[in-house]
Each structure stands twice: as C-alpha cells, then as structure tokens.
Amino acid sequence: MLSLSFTPLVPWPVLAGFGVLAAVLVVVAILARGRTALLRAVALALVIAALANPSLVREDRDPVKDVAAIVVDRSGSQTLGERPAMTDAVKAELERRFGSLTNIEPRFIEVGDAQGSEGDDGTKLFTALTQALADVPAERVAGVVMLTDGVVHDIPASLETLGFKAPLHVLVTGRPDERDRQIRMLEAPRFGIVGKDVTIRAEVMERGGTGTATVSVRRDGEEIDRQSIATGTPFSLTTHIEHGGPNVVEIEVEPLPGELTTVNNRAVLPIEGIREKLRVLLVSGEPHQGERTWRNLLKSDASVDLVHFTILRPPEKQDGTPISELSLIAFPTRELFVQKIKDFDLIIFDRYANQSVLPSAYFDNIVRYVREGGALLIAAGPEFAGPASLARTRLSAVLPGDPSMKVVEQPYKAALTDTGQRHPVTRALPGSESNPPAWGDWLRIVSAQTRAGVQPIMSGANGLPLLALSREDKGRVALMLSDQAWLWARGYQQGGPYLDLLRRLAHWLMKEPALEEEALRAQTTGRGREVRVERQTMAEEAGPVTITGPTGKERTLTLTKSEPGLFSATFEAESLGLHTLRSGNLVAFVSVGPANPRELADVFSDTERLKGVAEASGGTIRRVAAAGGGLDVPRLQITRGGRLGGADWIGFRPSDSATIRGVEVYPLGIGLWALAALAAAVLAMWLVEGRRGRAA
C-alpha cells in the first residue's frame, strides 16, 4: 500500500510563511515580466516542496478481522416461557451464519443477572459488552447484536459512553401477546412490634387479565387471610407480629391461565419482630446473697423492665417494728397477681416460701398464667425442701420437680447432663468443654425428683438435678434447685459463666426464637448465593431438609453434626428469591438476594426500551418470533455505506484494519533527482528570460 507523507525540514509555520512570500514574489514577477515569470514560480515551488520533504511510503500489511459482538441475555427474565428455546435457536443460527463472513470475528458474550451490592442489579448487557470489548480497538468493532427480551437495566443515555461507533442490532425474544399477573409492593414495613399489627399496601398488576383476582396471605407458611380484589388498584392488608425475629409474610395472587410465569405472583416481605420492653416480676422471699445477682443481671439488660419486691418480714413475725422502717411500699399482691399478671413476660420466685403472703387463689392465677403462655422461674433455696415449699402449693401442678425434703450441704461442681449438652440454654457454656467443668464449686443443692418426661439439663452433688425445664401448654417453667449462682458472680474459685447461664435461661423462658430446642434456621453467608442451614434438635440425629426454590423446584439437603444438638450444611441457591426449607414439622425461610428480584418486576418482552439507542447507532430492532410460530433470523451482510439494516437483513461496517509487517520510505524532496529538477527549472528560467532580454 502506497501513501504520500510529509516530514518538513523546517516548522510548518515557517514553511507556510515561505509559501506566502513566494506567492507574493510570483505575482509581482508576473505583473512585471508576464508569463515568463511562471518559470520562477515553478522554481520556488520546487524549493518549498523540497523543504516540505515529501516521501512515498510503502507499507506491507496483513488484513485483520473486525469484531462483531453478540451479547446473549441469560438473565432471570430470559428463562420465562419460550424465551430459552428461542434464545438457543437464534444463537445457533447466528453462529452458523457468521461462519460465512470470513473477514469478521464473532465474539459471543453470555450475560446473567448482575450481582451488585444489593445482590440484584438486574440485566446489565451494556456493562458486560464494554468489559468484553476492552481489548478491541474501537475502529475494529464492526457491529453489535443483542439477543435479549428487551428487559435491560443499564441502557446508556448516549452512544459516546460505549467507546465505539458501530451499529447496534437488537433481536428481541418473546411475543407481543404475552399475559402475566404480578404483585407489586407499595408499602412494606421492615420492622414491627411483637404483639402489634402492621399494615401492608400492595397492588396486583396484570396484562391480559380479568380485572379481579383472589389474593391469599400467609405468615410463616400459615394462611391467615384470603380476599378478592380489583387488579390495578392498591389494597391494604393487616397482619399481626407474632414473635421476635423474622416474620415472613407472603402475598400471593392466583395465576392467570397461560400466563408467562407464576414466580412473580408472590411477593415476600420479611418483617423483623421487635419486642418492646420485656416485663419481669422478681419476688425475693427474703434478703440473701444471691438476690443482688438476679437484680443486677435483669437490670443490666436494656430490653428488660424489672419490677422487684423483697419480703422483708413474714406476716407471722411480730416484733413491734413499724412497717415504715421495713419496706418502701406495701406488697401490691392483688394488683400484681390478679389485675396485671398478664402484663408480665416472666415471673421469678427467688427463695420464696409460702408464708401466707399470697392466697391460694393467687397461685391458681399463676398456674393459669403459665398455661396460657406465661413463664415461671423458681430459684430455690433451703425453703423449697421445707413445709412452706412452693411445691406444697397449687403451683405444684406446673413445677418440673418435687423436693424430697432434704438439703445437701457439700461442695460440688455443676455439670451438664447429656440433655444439657444439646439444649441451647446450656450448650457450649464457657468452661463446660473440660471434665470436670472449669467452674467454681457451689455449696448447696435441694434434693428433688423431676417429673416423668422431664430431663434435667444440669446436675449437682451426687448427680442430683440442678436445673430442670418444662413446657406447660403454651407456657414454660424452670426450676433451679440451688441458690448458689451468686458464688460464680463473686468469682469464688474463679467463678463461672453465670451471665451466660442466667441470661439464656431467662430468654428461653420468654420464648427467644434463637433458644428453641427444636428449630430450623437458614441465612445467607454473604458469599454469593451460598446459604447456611442449621437444625437445632434434642434428638441424636437430624433428618434431611427439603428446599423449595422460588420456581417450585425441590432439592434435598443432608445435614452433618457440628455440635451436640446442632446440625448444619450449606448449599448454593440456583436462583434469587425466597426459598422454603422444611424438616418434619419445622419450616424456615431464606431470601437469596432481594425477596422480590428486579428481574421479575417487569417480565414482558419489549422492543421500545432499546429502540432509541439502536436507531441512533444506525442499527435495527426486531422480534425474532415469526407470525406463523417459527423464528425470523435476519441475514448478515457487510456494507460500506448507506443503510445498515433492512426488512430481512442486518449490516456490519468493516474498518479495513490491518497489521503492518514492514515500511519502506522513498524521499521525493532530497537526492540527486530532486536537485536535478531544481537545476533544470533554474536553467530554463535563465534561458527564457535571457533570450527575452536579448530580443528586447
């Protein structure tokens, strides 16, 4: 390939100045001498040309193929209906047809759902295109083909941001007559107070629907409401926050016949249940060393509202001391145990003896309170083994153990039973990993026999039960058969984990979800779509977990033992959205990415979103679905000018790029022949002007 190149011997401005000066001299010479002065112009032109130093450049070039990028959309919306089959068929046909274009290199780019900081950035075809063509010079891009449903979330505002000038052709999958119905959330509270109602606002959107639809509402997998609503009109739902932690609310609309997908017929709303102040009533039967331990523990918990009374003098003790010197206020027994007993989440009797302070009817109220969902803790001392024991009252109906009227006074180390090693209240207590446990001694325990079916979770001297838990209908009861926990708090013999033990115990009684004996939990790990599943159980083995994905596809996960009573495993979610996990009667939910993915917010194939950018680039946009049910894939054609697409074809603009193997330069303004040309011009000028002078 030959080309003309200039390498001036003087700067271009100086050369331009010489050119202007030469032109002025030529004009003056022509006016003075006539046409014979044209030879002077030729001579000056040759001088200026020599200063410009022209050269003939010969390049040895190898042609380089241009690149055509084919972006194949494999996002979530492209998995709906006929779109996967359409995409595969069109891609295969494009691969075949590009094989006949020998001067174009096709580069296929598969693009899935974008995973940003929120876990769901939708479809980002242009971002993937830019990254895939980062190593290709802009002039070598002959064109771009996008095979997509048109649901794209990173369409550029202008073509300049793409970094190349090439036609963009869009082949749209799907059909124009698609029908679908979906739930759109309008107001979705993220938090709610346990025991209170929250309001959710949503709307059913549809295309090709009936105008009305039946909506069902489930909370933690259980249906709580069903109603018929008008589509396209916002509606409100009220749900009750039953417990702390995630309350998963699902709103599902009935499907349309033949609709595009039913995945977006369900919207999922995890509402975090937040407890208001937990109200605890602590009744100490007498002042003693451990009383402050309980009080300090409960007062240090910001979520606990503590009401504490201490019986300073039993009714039968009459020594003439004025009441005003023994207590700040009178013990409001009727108010606490009749009128407001249901306001408390936990009642603790700490070394309390039945000394006629509470009538028998009040104990009946406490039993009823427990069975209706309340919590009771007995922290027993020597009084529990005597005739005034609470076990001799009507509370005995709900107590997990019965004292044998004996108190054992000897040092011993509290230990976890086999049941306690698996129970979430005592599992992995700090120091329990050694044998004997690395805890300080306790010095006293009340001998007792647990009820049938109740397994103590801690034992004391001579293997006697130390801590026993039981469930009574909807409520819970704990019996601690020693008043020596304060020794751990005071650091006796290095102390022990009293804070962990007593706090877990209190929160188990108040139904903290994390401390349930039988529980199934799942949460994302933060590493892509990985989900960790945990199964808490008191059994020796845990059965498999059935996982149901957002599309209804099921899989089975086998758990392995990680700790006594705790089994776990991880799995990789195949798609974004809500996954339901079941193990026996237990159900758990985990949302991978957002609960309602962006990809499913608008699922209709669309030729309008990309129309502007495609036409601005000189390209085209069309559907590949033919009217007769087949596919209409356009021809591929190379075009060097004019239109870049027609009714049945799409064009690519070549760049004629090449790789230069070698360069030869032939100077034209220097050398013998250039000097000869200049000399010939000067000689001709001298001869002509000299002859004219003699003639004159």
Automatic annotation (TrEMBL):
Gene3D superfamilies: 3.40.50.880. Keywords: Membrane, Transmembrane, Transmembrane helix. The chain crosses the membrane at residues 12-31, 38-57, 665-688. The keyword Transmembrane helix applies. The keyword Coiled coil does not apply. Signal peptide: none annotated. SUPFAM superfamilies: Class I glutamine amidotransferase-like. PANTHER family: BLL2462 PROTEIN. This is Uncharacterized membrane protein. It comes from Methylorubrum salsuginis.
